Amino acid sequence: MAERMLQFVSTEREMPEKRDATARRDDFLEIYGPFIEAKAEEQASRCSQCGVPFCQNHCPLENNIPDWLKLTAEGRIKEAWEISDATNNMPEICGRICPQDRLCEGSCVIEQSGHGTVTIGSVEKYLTDTAWDNGWIEPLKVRRERGASVGIIGAGPAGLACAEQLRIEGWQVTVYDRHDRAGGLLIYGIPNFKLEKEIVERRTKRLADGGIKFVLNCNIGTDISFEKLREKHQAILIATGVYKARGLTVPGSGAHGVRPALDFLIDSNKRGLGDVVTSETADGKDVVVIGGGDTAMDCVRTAVRQGAKSVTCLYRRDHANMPGSRRETANAQEEGVRFEWLASPKSVADTNGVANSVRADRMRLGPKDPSGRQSPEAVPGADFDVTADMVIAALGFTPENMNDLSEEVTTTRWGTVRANPLTFETNLPGVYAAGDIVRGASLVVWAIREGRDAAAAMHKYLRALERAEMKEAAE
User: Signal sequence: where (predicted)?
Assistant: First the structure.
């Protein structure tokens, strides 16, 4: 092991080549190039193979990261991919969009010792891209066909992961989604420069080719009642995600030019997919994005690519307390986005109903709130104006009214579906829930984890039904 691994003492950390900021401002292509095999092996060899793998412990999927890094360093690429694939339905997607700096890489032991983390996400992406290129990823292998069927509401990462796991076990799976394409936020919420859409489409095609049925442009509760769905399927998974935007509530927030972040991103992604979209873009506009999470970073970087005249991000806390990925913030700064830290919107000014500027309070951090974070408070007399004829509110998401789906499903005081944390079963027998609709707005990797865990519980439930039917038939 010593000959292949522990090379962090002599080999510097190196990311895949990143396209120049000036060039990438003009298109929606991914900004990082791929590793070549030699470079992937070199970077993987920096792993220290710790006795306690903190990278794995801090991965929601508990991916066997040290194992596939060692195999990569040894040039055993197919074996490395097989281990990566065993715990993750979408490793090449996680390799692109996971905030590794907050998860596996942020917990890397050699990072803590000052040598710079192993580039885990880039190696993960390399392995599965290589598997696709070499034809190692085969159609779904169904263990044996089973008669019972499952209905999954939502074609996002939780729903897709659950669908794949259940289909492998042989259950008949149908996925319902309100949009015209499967993928949820993977297809419509995340910009191409982070995740090109053919990466998602080849995953959903593999599921469809494996016998999973997709019913799109279908809103459960409107087009098909939840009760009818329960009659049709022996088990149901609710994986609708959380899409209701937290609104901007300051004076003037109803002016033309103020819009929710997700609407802006969906329209942009639809254009990239070739759809005709009539809404305004950021072209030639002074854009202000309000928020400090990953969605806000997606918005500022999308506005740059749409040809905005200027892009400013307002965030009420300082840089150190920003919830978004440090890597994404740095990419945005390279691309010309201006950040106003410790700034909170006070009002939106308009001319004849059209936004023209945002007045913001200058903030300072005060005492800690119940979560342990310092509370932002306005500095008296320090407000200022930022020119803006497009204002994008990226303030987070909450669940939509679940009564529109079903009045029978129990929800929490936050509006999320109440589900058993171990089995993911709701108050209704045979009805399960996973992903953001249970957890609240979170990461794709958590949605995949919960989709897999829900599938395991649903498989157990369906097997019990199957055995009961067999026993009844025998009698």
Answer: none
